[in-house]
Amino acid sequence: MKNIQHKIGISLAILMCLSFQLRAQQSYRFSQFFQNAVTFNPAVSGTEEFVDLKIGYRQQWSGLDDAPQTYFISAHAPLGKKEKSYSFQNNSLRISDPSIYERLANARTLTKNRITHGVGGYLVSDQQGIFHQTNGMLTYALHYAVGKSVLSFGLGGGLNNRELDLDGVTVGNTEIPDETYQAYLAQQGKITNVDVTAGLFLRNENFYVGYSAKRLLENELFASIDEIEAKEEMEHYGMLGLRFNINNTLLVSPAAFVKYTASGSVLYDANVRVKYNELFWVGASYRSTETVIGMAGFTLNNLINLGYSYDLGIGEINDFRSGVHEIGLGFMLFNKKDTSPYLW
Fold it and tell me: How far apart are CA 239 and CA 295, in angstroms?
């Protein structure tokens, strides 16, 4: 009897997952969104003064078999003419606040060239049980100086592939409709669509704000199946962050990240981070799914940075929102100016 109930439960769970995938087709999500913003907004491409390479991993429901997990690799870099280097420090009077040299250099970098360009790309692999989604994209951004700020326009294009492990699905005699399963079966469990994204990003020394939209084409999921009408949902993302220099060594940055889909679902993160002496940082975040997140990271010789976060559900139903580990390893390649990451 228990075996029968177990099999029925598994079948129901599979059909519910299929239905969920059909309706929502949700994208991956990162707790450290600021570390990997190019995967959400192509306008971020080229905002750093070096090649920003990130490699990371996220695992949910730690300790369970076949738990959801996400792998990613991303990179972006500026394009354009090399700027002549000026030494403020060697050509000015001695002052009591040495950090002003870096602020002057950063301000000059942001506004020196009125128009600059950036390129990037990323590959994200998201595994959720019998579902596997891979998203690969190339990005481009044009940066235009507006006063002491820079406004960026970005575009991205690539492919989004979804696969259903048909070997892991068994559908027996049941009155529950399984049209979705049949549609996947007719396409050998694979769906591949062209993905297009666009975004805006405005930044200066004190704040940044961005908006982007993904899945602009809203592709039909089963174009050859007349019985099922299902499209990709367009996704909208918003980012906002402030930057406060408390003193020579402390930088405080509150930030928010919002995701909205065409079906009306809204998710948001709100966090605050403190960075000490450009060496290490700590932070805490709250997500609208009643989840709190602790995070920390460090930078080594302006070449390598590492970030880690842990999600903990605090609501009445939190089993599936707890035990989420996320780690990202970054490399600041060709960082000749020895600058620190703007989005850290």
Answer: 18
Q: Give 61-91 pLDDT, tens digit per residue.
A: 766 666 788 999 999 999 975 554 444 344 4
Would you mind telling me the total number of residues written for the chain in this entry? Answer: 344
Distance, CA of 120 to CA of 138 (rounded, Å): 6
Alpha-carbon gap, residue 328 to 148, rounded angstroms: 31
Residue 221, both tokens: 């999921």
Query: Please, are residues 328 and 54 in contact by the beta-carbon 8 Å criterion?
Result: yes
CA distance 310 to 58: 10
Q: In whole angstroms, what separates CA 254 from the centre of its chain?
A: 17
Question: Which tens digit of pLDDT belongs to each residue from 279-329?
Answer: 899 999 999 988 999 999 999 888 999 999 999 988 765 555 567 999 999
End-to-end Cα spacing for the chain: 54
Measured distance CA(58)–CA(29) in Å, rounded: 9
Distance CA 210, CA 42 (A): 10
Strand blocks (E) in the chain: 51-59, 69-79, 115-128, 131-146, 149-164, 190-203, 207-214, 235-242, 244-245, 250-261, 266-276, 280-287, 291-300, 304-313, 324-333
Query: What is the sign of the dihedral through the CA atoms of 37, 266, 203 and 99?
Result: negative
> Tell me, what's the pLDDT at 171?
61
Burial of 100 by CB count in 10 Å (0-12 exposed, 13-18 middle, 19+ buried)? middle
Phi, then psi, of 93 in degrees rounded to 5:
-70, 155
CB contact at 8 A, 136 and 114: no
Q: Which fold has domain 2-333?
A: Porin (2.40.160)
> Which pTM was predicted?
0.79
> Residue 12's pLDDT is what?
41
Residue 43 contacts residue 311 (beta carbons within 8 Å):
no
Cα separation, 214 vs 235, in Å, equals: 5
The predicted model gives 49-63 an average pLDDT of 87
Residue 251 reports pLDDT greater than 80: yes
Res 244: pLDDT: 93
